[in-house]
Amino acid sequence: MPDLNDPEHQREQKLNKALEALHFAFRAITAKPDAMLAEYGLSRVHHRVLYFVGRNPGLSINELLAILGVRKQSLNVPLRKLIELGLIQSQADTTDRRVKRLTLTRKGLGLENQLTGDERQRFSRVFNCVGPEGEAAWLKVMHLLAEDEFNEG
């Protein structure tokens, strides 16, 4: 039986609470967008593609692959579906016809704004509650967690 007063055990419990908080927060943030995506037969991966194409109009498929950290095979099916649904447009680059540039269509922009708009509203409410210092601390934690992915590999 673990010693409940052991500092290592107490630290582990605090870390477990942090992991649980992250899980439940992520579930709350993504619940409404996931339901909207399901109406289109789409999933979270489609939302990520819409989000990053929306933030980076005209990016190439290779640039999108680098942002998402996935292989071309992983992106092929979701991207094709978004194009078929008229949410993303793919056009050849003006200087190198082999490069495809991606942009959201008007329909894609509308859906992406609905999906991400709900998430932005949640963050806005929370950041208003915790103030600028809390927001800055949260962003620092998220950046450090993201950097760990690249430092461990």
Structure description:
This protein is mainly alpha-helical. It has a single domain, classed as Arc Repressor Mutant, subunit A, CATH 1.10.10.10. It has helices spanning 7-39, 44-55, 61-68, 72-84, 106-152; strands spanning 59-60, 88-92, 100-104. A hairpin with a 7-residue loop joins strand 2 and strand 3 (100-104). The longest helix has 47 residues, at 106-152.
Helix/strand/pairing category: mainly alpha
Instruction: Summarize the main sheet.
Output: 3 strands, antiparallel
**Number of E-state strands:** 3
CATH fold-type name: Arc Repressor Mutant, subunit A
CATH architecture level-2 label: Orthogonal Bundle
CATH H level: which superfamily? Winged helix-like DNA-binding domain superfamily/Winged helix DNA-binding domain
Radius of gyration: 19 Å
Indicate the low-confidence ranges by residue numbers: none
Tell me the β content: 5-15%
Instruction: State the oligomer.
Output: single chain
Percent of residues in helices:
over 70%
Q: What is the string of helix and strand elements?
A: HHEHHEEH
| Separation, N- and C-terminal Cα atoms | 35 Å
Sheet with the most strands: spatial strand order: 1-3-2
Assign an overall shape: elongated
Q: Averaging pLDDT over every residue, what do you get?
A: 93
Please count the helical segments.
5
What is the strand and helix layout of this fold?
Blueprint: H1 7-39, H2 44-55, E1 59-60, H3 61-68, H4 72-84, E2 88-92, E3 100-104, H5 106-152
Antiparallel strand pairs: 1-3, 2-3
Helix pairs in contact: 1-5, 2-5
